[in-house]
Amino acid sequence: MTEHHLRRPAVEAATGLSRSSIYAMMDTNDFPRPVRIGKRAVAWPESAVTAWLASRPTADRVG
């Protein structure tokens, strides 16, 4: 099965993060790094973004 990749606008929409927040979090290793998909293009593996989202605390989890 082929891994789907998300370009930055899709990552921003899925996470609710801005471009600057994504890159700042990448600098501190708090967000997955993209992979190169072309000479001047990068994208994030959808599985990495999904795993990152699943690892984040949610408002409905108390404690």
Automatic annotation (TrEMBL):
Top-rank taxon, per record: Bacteria
Protein name: Transcriptional regulator, AlpA family
Coiled coil: none
Gene3D superfamilies documented for this protein: 1.10.238.160
Entries under InterPro entries matching the protein: AlpA (IPR010260), Prophage_regulatory_activator (IPR052931)
Lineage of source species: Bacteria, Pseudomonadati, Pseudomonadota, Alphaproteobacteria, Rhodobacterales
PANTHER family attached to this UniProt entry: DNA-BINDING TRANSCRIPTIONAL ACTIVATOR ALPA
